[in-house]
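Hypothesis: this fold can be encoded by more than one sequence.
Test: take the structure tokens below, design a sequence, compare later.
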């Protein structure tokens, strides 16, 4: 499929005009599609140009090589993840909202893309740094935000903020469900993850009565 755009580089930064956002968006979209379908090695400047219908000169003015285009596409995609969660009134409700956000973010296309980056990131420090930065942001803004709110409510002791393996368990199980098992991390799965793994572990650090699933 070819995307036909005005690829005239009169909007080139070299001539003092803003870059064509539609053209940039098309390059990012095609690159993400290729990453999802073929993995890192399947992304070439020639293939992106052919699929987008954008002249090579326009692409190279923006990105000097395939790696810079790939990094820009990954960063653009991960930047779209919304991590700020509202207060839902209880630890369990907040955790469920956080897990649901993760599950929705890990759509089939993004799941395939991330799966294809696992091996390359071990050999590419720049790629590893980009992915690690985003995963750490999810931990700090998502999981830690939920736990900190529970500590402020008095539902958990402050040491709960240091129980990082539970955060890893939550993200890993959702990733495994989506990527390895290729099954949706639906509400049934998320409730089971909460009630059999996360809540029992966290309640050991609580000061009050264990929370129950009021929706069950």
């Amino acid at each position: 499929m070819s995307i036909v755009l005005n690829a005239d580089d009169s909007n080139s930064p070299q001539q003092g005009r803003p870059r064509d956002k539609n053209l940039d968006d098309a390059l990012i979209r095609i690159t993400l599609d290729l990453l999802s379908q073929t993995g890192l090695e399947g992304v070439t400047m020639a293939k992106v140009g052919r699929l987008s219908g954008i002249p090579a000169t326009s692409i190279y003015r923006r990105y000097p090589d395939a790696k810079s285009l790939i990094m820009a596409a990954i960063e653009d995609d991960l930047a779209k993840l919304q991590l700020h969660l509202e207060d839902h009134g209880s630890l369990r409700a907040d955790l469920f909202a956080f897990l649901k956000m993760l599950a929705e973010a890990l759509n089939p296309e993004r799941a395939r893309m991330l799966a294809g980056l696992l091996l390359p990131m071990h050999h590419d420090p720049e790629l590893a740094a980009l992915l690690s930065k985003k995963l750490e942001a999810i931990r700090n803004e998502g999981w830690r935000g939920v736990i900190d709110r529970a500590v402020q409510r008095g539902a958990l002791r402050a040491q709960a903020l240091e129980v990082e393996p539970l955060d890893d368990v939550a993200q890993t199980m959702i990733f495994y469900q989506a990527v390895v098992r290729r099954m949706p991390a639906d509400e049934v799965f998320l409730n089971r993850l909460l009630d059999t793994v996360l809540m029992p572990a966290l309640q050991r650090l609580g000061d009050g009565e264990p929370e129950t699933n009021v929706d069950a």
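The radius of gyration is 21 Å. The chain has nine helices and no strands.
Hypothesis status: open.
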